Request: fold
Amino acid sequence: MSGHAQLMWDEAVTGYDFGADHPMNPVRLDLTRSLVAALGLDRRVDVVAAPPAGDSTLRLVHRQEYVDAVKAASVDPAAADPAYGLGTVDDPAFPGMHQASALIAGQSVGAAEAVWRGEALHAVNFAGGLHHAMPGAAAGFCVYNDAALAIARLLELGAERVAYVDTDVHHGDGVQAAFWADPRVLTVSLHEHPRTLFPGTGWPEETGTGAGAGSAVNVALPAGTGDEGWLRAFHAVVPELLADFRPQVLVTQHGADTHFEDPLAHLAVSLDAQRAVQTACHELAHAHADGGRWVALGGGGYAVVEVVPRSWTHLVGIAAGAPVEPSTEVPQGWRQEAYAKTRMSAPRRMTDGRWPVKWADWEAGYDPADRLDQAVLAARRAAFPLRGLLA
Reply:
């Protein structure tokens, strides 16, 4: 197996553009790619552009009639059918929507293929992680569910165990739905509690059904959860599950919208804690996923200058074996580029000043009266016994 990491990138993914007033501004992708280059990380990875996902690939998750509706809306956005979640406030139709969405999906599928075939040990598609799209509908800024498609392609290639860990502030509902009854896929989502945030799902009692009972795990975090609680919850749930499941490939989603500056959610996580979880996912892949098979995706994140480019640049650096030190200065040329494109000032360092981030280990004990510990306990008690694990 190659020790190289792949960065999946085609500039045309920035055509995934819902319009100037939409939070999902593709400048966040453009600026991330520029920051990766400015810090020299593109010399440490193989930059690869995969082809768009074709209809046969999209049908691994999506219904053909939905794909046809997306294509029709791409040609005539005014005729988008809201019955398919298209032409809505969250998912307005735009010319070329199918092509841009299929291209993003293709990058995640290509990443999965490269890792499975041994062409790369790690592969990153920070344009991906569009985890809300359902088999027959767009939802939550997501047209095609590239994360679910990557997993489905791995299964098609012969994988028997794939683990998916979603650290976006929003529940990874579309991926969970795609594999709700499939014991070959373990989905773990840490997200803000559904009482306070879209999509209103991801309760701990959602654990899968039939042969897939216990294959979905949800940690619903109280609004306001910060670095220590977020990392405590991650380490109280994810490592034990992965050690038991022994996935052949680990797929992770790294939405940057857990950050305290994100305008659409209510967690209070720093860039440094995001980097710590990215590092943990890398280490867990090496410990439990066939020697390190890891597909890492982006996701949400709407602080498009202050947070997203730095967070996903850290992700690329970790996957490349060249982690960026938090104290690193953000290159002045990149800061000027960011201002020219957005009229927003960029941060000066690759840290929020909270590194190293510390948390209290779950094994040292828990407080049943603490809201964060209650969330962890609820997840463990709902799902762990179904997997033969102690809650």
The chain has a mean pLDDT of 98. The longest strand covers residues 185-192. The first helix runs from residue 27 to 38.
